[in-house]
Amino acid sequence: MGSSGFSWKLNDHPKLPKGKIIAVVVLDGWGEANPNQYNCIHVAETPAMDSLKKGAPEKWRLVKAHGKAVGLPTDDDMGNSEVGHNALGAGRIFAQGAKLVDLALASGKIYEGEGFKYIKESFETGTLHLIGLLSDGGVHSRLDQLQLLLKGASEHGAKRIRVHVLTDGRDVLDGTSIGFVETLENDLAKLREKGVDAQIASGGGRMQVTMDRYENDWDVVKRGWDAQVLGEAPHKFKSAVEAVKKLREAPNANDQYLPPFVIVDDNGKPVGPIVDGDAVVTFNFRADRMVMLAKALEYEDFDKFDRVRFPKIRYSGMLQYDGELKLPSHYLVSPPEIDRTSGEYLVHNGVRTFACSETVKFGHVTFFWNGNRSGYFKQEMEEYVEIPSDFGITFNVEPKMKALEIAEKARDAILSRKFDQVRVNLPNSDMVGHTGDIEATIVACKAADDAVKMILDTIEQVGGIYVVTADHGNAEDMVKRNKKGEPLLDKNGNIQILTSHTLQPVPVAIGGPGLAPGVRFREDVPDGGLANVAATVMNLHGFEAPADYESTLIEVVDN
């Protein structure tokens, strides 16, 4: 429909009333898996969530939260919070991050775009620097994309290339960094045979160097800056393979936490600091852990740490990492155009909206939910509340995080009766799950469940409706497994902890005294995913979803 004929007006649902207060609760990193001792959700005391599952079977089901269901390239791709909340809010499946990059690389379009043309102007006299996570984890980056980009850039005129590698060990097994560096070195050697001066210039572990997020610790970015831009680091090596092997020999060494290192030539000079006239590409496709570096590379006015030098470079992200900040201003691949999200429709149809989480997931329940768009649709009808996350500690130290505070804000918003939708994200099972601390993750799951109980009790008081779901799995499986599903052991016979997200489905539960009689989950949407939740929520608000939305999960049967 042309823009002239477009209307935000939604049709009324023929059988469901308007005006009920609806709580939408997203448990972050809360998947469904076999009960065992590594399933922290199963081990934890979670009476609220248990009661939803054991209640009416037609009001609890699982949906897909990974792979193609959320716009990722394959069903081997684990879900993540960004694409999960995009799907929950948008009601449709959009090609995401990695998939957009794959399409642009496969078609060669990436080399015709604005972003590439911009950095290409530096190829004649400058160096092309590629900075990112060296891993095939597929969460932040993928090795094969870096390999294609190296090949393509050299074919399009890059004569001098330096790669600044960040080792993973979080989305992939610890220890795999050595193999990834060897693979990359092999590729760079082939480029050198073709006359391209290509080598690794610096490196370090992702949690120690560059990849901080949400302005938690600028020192992480500074350590990366010192190595990548200034060519300075406490550790200097002749080769990256030697660097990673040597640094992994330290007691308790781990790929995630390797200290920064710089590669030097025979005279002890760094082989690839970033200088005036160079081009830089950050090749991660996922945004959250690139934004801080992007600010340091792009902002003239910057006070987070002393950059010492601010080189005049041409910088392009693999994608634009923040649509609101327009950061970076140049990027190789354009983002999915997510329009007409459920949040925008509902506000235009009189649904007053409250959204809340703590810092680490506040953007998910607002920006990502709203189609990668910051701010309010109609300020007078919306309120977004961010509770500051704990700062300067790892989340397993305080696994309860701000779950109680989030639940209290939701409770107050519901009882105020000022809002028709009260939407929250409870981050515990994801953020603590990422630390790999099983005991703490059990505490985290209980804290999230306590918060769910407070919200459900409040919905009971106002005669409202609840929709409880999740964005992807994490805490439900904390151990790495072989192809048969058996736990993997390390050489000392200890289990190998899984810190990443999973491929598991997530629950959706509906209920509350305001739920019309006869509402139940349909049985003809067996492959439903997160994107089906949006139409479901719209129905519960008393509206039909737009025709091109993924179908609703519910039906109303006449009793």
From TrEMBL:
<dbReference type="InterPro" id="IPR011258">
    <property type="entry name" value="BPG-indep_PGM_N"/>
</dbReference>
<dbReference type="InterPro" id="IPR005995">
    <property type="entry name" value="Pgm_bpd_ind"/>
</dbReference>
<feature type="binding site">
    <location>
        <position position="28"/>
    </location>
    <ligand>
        <name>Mn(2+) 2</name>
    </ligand>
</feature>
<feature type="binding site">
    <location>
        <position position="472"/>
    </location>
    <ligand>
        <name>Mn(2+) 2</name>
    </ligand>
</feature>
<dbReference type="GO" id="GO:0006096">
    <property type="term" value="P:glycolytic process"/>
</dbReference>
<comment type="pathway">
    <text>Carbohydrate degradation; glycolysis; pyruvate from D-glyceraldehyde 3-phosphate: step 3/5.</text>
</comment>
<feature type="binding site">
    <location>
        <begin position="170"/>
        <end position="171"/>
    </location>
    <ligand>
        <name>substrate</name>
    </ligand>
</feature>
<feature type="active site" description="Phosphoserine intermediate">
    <location>
        <position position="81"/>
    </location>
</feature>
<dbReference type="GO" id="GO:0010037">
    <property type="term" value="P:response to carbon dioxide"/>
</dbReference>
<feature type="binding site">
    <location>
        <position position="501"/>
    </location>
    <ligand>
        <name>Mn(2+) 1</name>
    </ligand>
</feature>
<dbReference type="InterPro" id="IPR017850">
    <property type="entry name" value="Alkaline_phosphatase_core_sf"/>
</dbReference>
<dbReference type="GO" id="GO:0046872">
    <property type="term" value="F:metal ion binding"/>
</dbReference>
<feature type="binding site">
    <location>
        <position position="213"/>
    </location>
    <ligand>
        <name>substrate</name>
    </ligand>
</feature>
<comment type="similarity">
    <text>Belongs to the BPG-independent phosphoglycerate mutase family.</text>
</comment>
<feature type="domain" description="Metalloenzyme">
    <location>
        <begin position="22"/>
        <end position="544"/>
    </location>
</feature>
<feature type="binding site">
    <location>
        <position position="434"/>
    </location>
    <ligand>
        <name>Mn(2+) 1</name>
    </ligand>
</feature>
<keyword id="KW-0413">Isomerase</keyword>
<dbReference type="GO" id="GO:0010118">
    <property type="term" value="P:stomatal movement"/>
</dbReference>
<protein>
    <recommendedName>
        <fullName>phosphoglycerate mutase (2,3-diphosphoglycerate-independent)</fullName>
        <ecNumber>5.4.2.12</ecNumber>
    </recommendedName>
</protein>
<keyword id="KW-0324">Glycolysis</keyword>
<dbReference type="GO" id="GO:0005737">
    <property type="term" value="C:cytoplasm"/>
</dbReference>
<feature type="binding site">
    <location>
        <position position="140"/>
    </location>
    <ligand>
        <name>substrate</name>
    </ligand>
</feature>
<dbReference type="InterPro" id="IPR006124">
    <property type="entry name" value="Metalloenzyme"/>
</dbReference>
<feature type="binding site">
    <location>
        <position position="361"/>
    </location>
    <ligand>
        <name>substrate</name>
    </ligand>
</feature>
<comment type="subunit">
    <text>Monomer.</text>
</comment>
<dbReference type="Pfam" id="PF06415">
    <property type="entry name" value="iPGM_N"/>
</dbReference>
<dbReference type="GO" id="GO:0009637">
    <property type="term" value="P:response to blue light"/>
</dbReference>
<feature type="binding site">
    <location>
        <position position="430"/>
    </location>
    <ligand>
        <name>Mn(2+) 1</name>
    </ligand>
</feature>
<feature type="binding site">
    <location>
        <position position="206"/>
    </location>
    <ligand>
        <name>substrate</name>
    </ligand>
</feature>
<feature type="binding site">
    <location>
        <begin position="286"/>
        <end position="289"/>
    </location>
    <ligand>
        <name>substrate</name>
    </ligand>
</feature>
<feature type="binding site">
    <location>
        <position position="471"/>
    </location>
    <ligand>
        <name>Mn(2+) 2</name>
    </ligand>
</feature>
<dbReference type="GO" id="GO:0004619">
    <property type="term" value="F:phosphoglycerate mutase activity"/>
</dbReference>
<keyword id="KW-0479">Metal-binding</keyword>
<feature type="binding site">
    <location>
        <position position="81"/>
    </location>
    <ligand>
        <name>Mn(2+) 2</name>
    </ligand>
</feature>
<dbReference type="Pfam" id="PF01676">
    <property type="entry name" value="Metalloenzyme"/>
</dbReference>
<keyword id="KW-0963">Cytoplasm</keyword>
<feature type="domain" description="BPG-independent PGAM N-terminal">
    <location>
        <begin position="102"/>
        <end position="322"/>
    </location>
</feature>
<keyword id="KW-0464">Manganese</keyword>
<dbReference type="InterPro" id="IPR036646">
    <property type="entry name" value="PGAM_B_sf"/>
</dbReference>
